[in-house]
Amino acid sequence: MTExxxxxxxxxxxxxxIWRNGVARDLAERGFEVLAxxxxxxxxxxxxxxxxxxxVLMDLNMGASTGVEATGRITTELPxxxxxxxxxxxxxxxxxxxxxxxxxxxxxxxxxxxxxxDAVRRTAAGDAVxxxxxxxxxxxEYRRMAATGPDADPGTPRLSERExxxxxxxxxxxxxxxxxxxxxxxxxxxxxxxxxxxxxxQLHNRVELARYAIEHGLDGDxxx
Length: 224
Prior knowledge:
Blueprint: E1 9-13, H1 17-29, E2 33-38, H2 41-51, E3 55-58, E4 61-62, E5 65-66, H3 67-77, E6 82-87, H4 92-101, E7 105-108, H5 113-124, E8 129-130, H6 132-148, H7 161-171, H8 176-183, H9 187-201, H10 206-215
Parallel strand pairs: 1-2, 1-3, 3-6, 6-7, 7-8
Antiparallel strand pairs: 4-5
């Protein structure tokens, strides 16, 4: 059964108090457990160590304190905590830096409350969540990096054709049920392929799996 919002703990990080408190209130009203808020990256890291939220909603541009640095420290020190960037910036460089630092996703502040709630829930469940246009930017950039990078390591584990299909769709941000519908297979079969791929690649969750896929250029359609 899908995890309910009541079981998802969050922390909101933003240097604008009206925005920060508004987001915290919106999430609390929809059943999320808002453990804390923070006004800068340094405070975010310090508080996250104590409260250990499932999801941190992280702004990027906070004066002298950067959300990218805080994201890197939190995801490194607290592997059980995922970071979802919530920023006004849709700049390509900002998105890529956040993802490289370990962010599980990137949402623009223009998103509706419903989109935010869905994104936080999906992030807590292990999905990589991006505002639609930004997902294309991230995938395209990593595809170019993979195309111009060194040859693939011959020791890389070999995936089956079906595992590769599932991996491509994971990289596009589809949920297991959406993948099942797309490939006309059962939800359980999708999960089995995901778990098998995780074992082969020695990864721990779907976020790492999506990052692996886009770093190795496996996010595009086979005919592209």
